[in-house]
Amino acid sequence: MILGNVDVVTDISKEDFQNNYFKKHKPLLIKNFASRWDAFDQWNFDFIREKAGGQEVPLYDNKPADATKSSDAPVTHMKMEDYIDTIRTKPSDLRIFFYIITDRLPELLKNFTYPDLGMKFFKRLPTLFFGGSEAHVLMHYDVDLGDFLHIHFEGKKRILLFDQKQSAYLYKVPLSVHTIYEVNYENPDYEKFPALKYAQGYEIFMEHGDALFIPGGFWHFNRYLEPGFSMSLRALPNKPVVFANMLYHVFIMRYTDKLLRKLFKVKWVNYKQKWAYEKSSRALAKHGG
Ligand SMILES: O=C(O)CCC(=O)C(=O)O
Ligand SMILES: [Fe+2]
């Protein structure tokens, strides 16, 4: 893999952001972004524990969801306070995925502001993600294809980003938003997955308060290096082509995949993997590999 750095700023004007990052679909790291909020000192585990400690939360771990099942059932449930105590005191791969602030902790809405960067934020869906020091989120891109700001709190996090043109080098599985699960992007096995050598992307390290602009449709692999949590602020696609592609992803691709999975079960899953591998081999062949 060929990993570069993203541009890093501490502040940016709307014009600069629009012209050099947003319109060009180029990721950007804004250091210390959240420190501009009046309530920045409340963005920590203690605050969440105090306000939402009694809530039961669904938890996931590092294992991929069972591809032959249609629902992504959580591995367990815990009270938020027990979950936070667990990840703070011992190594854990337990994660909270897509905790919708508007529904579950609306009080948090007054503790941040949306930046004026010319992004049309979808204010119904600010979401939180949590992870222990062993947690990672498998390579995927988001079906809604929207641009988003990913703001991180507490311990460090490492993120790998790739644009859609890299899909074949990453071993994308057809009719899905993920890649072959056996591919390890942290310790690539080039013998088994040779196309990976040509995958070109970005490596980003995030610290407390940093914000990462992730352009719509970008692949992301997120690794919690220490216990932490993040908030994603999404914008819906505003270009007709991207919007149409989003409708395809949400309404057609997912159901076609579900139906084929129902009909053919593990056969379909294996067929997709083979197909993914062959597509990547063809991409590799272009490099004479
Ligand atoms: O970092 C995480 O836990 C997942 C975040 C993510 O995939 C997203 O915001 O789209
Ligand atoms: Fe995501």
- Would you state the CATH class? Mainly Beta
Number of helices: 6
Major sheet description:
7 strands, mixed
How much beta, percentage-wise? 15-25%
- How are the strands of the biggest sheet laid out side by side? 2-3-12-9-14-7-6
Query: Could you say which structural class the secondary elements and strand pairing correspond to?
Result: alpha+beta
How far apart the termini lie comes to: 14 Å
Shape: globular
What is the number of strand segments? 14
CATH fold annotation: Jelly Rolls
Give me the CATH architecture, please. Sandwich
- How many domains, as an integer? 1
Nearest-integer average pLDDT: 94
Bound molecules: 2-oxoglutaric acid, fe (ii) ion
**Could you state the order of secondary-structure elements as H and E?**
EEHEHEEHEHEEEEEEEEHH
Q: Roughly what percent helix?
A: 25-40%
Low-confidence parts, pLDDT < 50 over ≥5 residues? none
- The rounded Rg comes to 19 Å
* CATH homologous superfamily assignment: Cupin
Protein name: Cupin-like domain-containing protein
InterPro entries: Cupin_8, JmjC_dom
Organism: Chryseobacterium profundimaris
Domain JmjC: 94-252
Please provide a written account of the structure.
The two termini are 14 Å apart. The chain is globular and about 55 Å long. The chain has 6 helices and 14 strands. The chain has 289 residues and is an alpha+beta fold. It has one domain (2-285): Jelly Rolls, CATH 2.60.120.650. The chain has helices at residues 14-22, 45-52, 80-89, 101-104, 240-264, 266-285, and strands at 2-4, 7-9, 28-30, 56-59, 76-79, 95-100, 127-131, 136-140, 148-154, 157-162, 200-206, 211-214, 219-224, 228-234. Helix 1 (14-22) links the parallel strand 2 and strand 3 (28-30). Helix content is 26%, strand content 24%. Helix 5 (240-264) packs across helix 6. The longest helix has 25 residues, at 240-264. The strands form 3 sheets. It has a 7-stranded mixed β-sheet with strand order 2-3-12-9-14-7-6. A 5-stranded mixed β-sheet has the order 1-11-10-13-8, with no helix packed on it. It binds 2-oxoglutaric acid and fe (ii) ion. Residues 95, 129, 131, 137, 142, 150, 220, 222, 230, 232 line the site of 2-oxoglutaric acid (AKG). The site of fe (ii) ion has 3 residues, from loops.
